[in-house]
Specification:
Blueprint (H helix, E strand, L loop, with lengths): L7 H7 L1 H12 L10 H8 L3 E6 L1 H18 L3 E5 H4 L10 E7 L5 H12 L3 E6 L5 H5 L2 E4 L12 H20 L8 H16 L2 H12 L4 E6 L2 H17 L2 E6 L16 E6 L5 H13 L3 E7 L9 E3 L7 H19 L18
Parallel strand pairs: 1-2, 1-3, 3-4, 4-5, 6-7, 6-8, 8-9, 9-10
Helix pairs in contact: 2-8, 2-9, 4-8, 4-11, 9-13, 10-13, 11-13
The structure holds fructose -6-phosphate.
Catalytic activity: D-fructose 6-phosphate + L-glutamine = D-glucosamine 6-phosphate + L-glutamate
GO molecular function: carbohydrate derivative binding; glutamine-fructose-6-phosphate transaminase (isomerizing) activity
Subunit structure: Homodimer.
């Protein structure tokens, strides 16, 4: 089933442009615009706050989703780690709508929250890759990811599919409220798919970056600001779980509040610079770590790039940059793991779906 690929993870990374195109087709209405069905639109319109609940990579997609939902459609949105929800239960608004993001649709931590909030009588929506999964069956509504089966334990195409579907949801809510978006999402997702395709074609460059920065390091840092910070959390998780290199994602401005103490000569620091409004500040954070000996690898968006950047991402709409910036991070983690002789599809201690709480 993995055809000529050496493993599933590489195949699934490569499938991402096709997954985005498939999502656009699946969600396209008769006017050629991406939209969601009326039931879900109505349920969201009737709620005053969205509560996203998820684990791991799906939680990271939720963080990006919150930004999309709040920025594009003005709906207050919170994101919660499923396994913490019952202990750190947020104060709920009057009419909450719960959104469960889960590739497998079987994550026990997320299901426990679903069962709990259903008992309280709240509306629920599951965003999942698996039709007929537990979380899909038990929620009032489902949005499918259309990513095709994800076999590798490390989630790649499901993450980008989740972000893409959340962008469609956000745009649809905005439309429903009569808010004019200043861009055509259907068209912009097409541009994203092309940008992803260009990035997965740069394997040699990314393999070399992995070798140069990660060959014999014990740790690595990822820094970014605004939405790039959320992609840094996901990038660090990818590296940790398949290469066993200790990695952390940080908000660029937080470094000076403690983490910078960990920077030594040669410490790899990956910096994402895809957001115009924070480009100056993330670049000064890079200078701060370089001054302390870090080996910095800057990945920037075309138009914001500067001399010395290691990789320039093709330009896409600034609300959608996570869809492209995560791709080189997945490939860097992949090659680092391969170079260290790790089993990329089946990392130690991990299962594809976590069905225990
Ligand atoms: C990381 C990864 C996990 C899952 C998490 C949630 O690559 O795959 O962090 O994202 O276990 O799984 P789902 O999305 O199936 O609920």
């Amino acid at each position: 089933e993995k055809g000529t690929y050496p493993n599933y993870m590489l195949k699934e990374i490569d499938e991402q442009p096709a997954v985005i195109r498939k999502i656009v087709m699946a969600y396209e209405d008769d006017k050629g615009q991406v939209s969601i069905d009326e039931d879900i639109r109505g349920a969201i319109a009737a709620s005053d706050r969205l509560y996203i609940v998820a684990a791991g990579t799906s939680y990271h997609a939720g963080l990006v989703g919150k930004q999309l939902l709040e920025n594009l459609s003005g709906v207050p949105t919170e994101v919660h780690i499923a396994s913490e929800f019952s202990y750190n239960m947020p104060l709920l608004s009057k009419n909450p709508l719960f959104i469960f993001i889960s590739q497998s649709g079987e994550t026990a931590d997320s299901r426990a929250v679903l069962v709990h909030v259903k008992k309280l009588g709240f509306r629920t929506l599951t965003i999942t890759n698996v039709a007929g999964s537990t979380l899909s069956r038990e929620a009032d509504h489902t949005l499918l990811l259309h990513a095709g089966p994800e076999i590798a334990v490390a989630s790649t195409k499901a993450y980008t599919a989740q972000v893409a579907v959340l962008s469609i949801l956000a745009a649809d809510i905005a439309n429903g409220k009569g808010m004019e978006l200043d861009f055509d999402l259907t068209k912009e997702l097409g541009i994203v798919a092309n940008a992803m395709a260009a990035l997965v074609d740069q394997k040699e460059v990314l393999e070399n970056i992995a070798r140069e920065y990660l060959a014999d390091t014990r740790n690595a840092f990822y820094i970014g600001r605004a939405v790039d910070y959320f992609v840094c959390l996901e990038s660090a998780l990818k590296l940790k779980e398949i290469s066993y290199i200790q990695a952390e994602g940080f908000a660029g401005g937080e470094l000076k509040h403690g983490t910078i103490a960990l920077i030594e000569k040669g410490t790899p620091v990956f910096a994402l610079a895809t957001q115009a409004h924070v480009n100056g500040s993330i670049r000064s954070n890079v200078k701060e770590v370089v001054a302390r000996g870090a080996n910095a690898c800057i990945i920037s968006l075309e138009g914001l790039n500067e001399e010395g950047d290691s990789l320039v991402l093709p330009e896409v709409h600034d609300a959608l940059t996570p869809l492209v910036s995560v791709v080189p991070m997945q490939l860097i983690a992949y090659y680092a793991a391969l170079q260290r002789g790790c089993d990329v599809d089946k990392p130690r201690n991990l299962a594809k779906s976590v069905t225990v709480e």
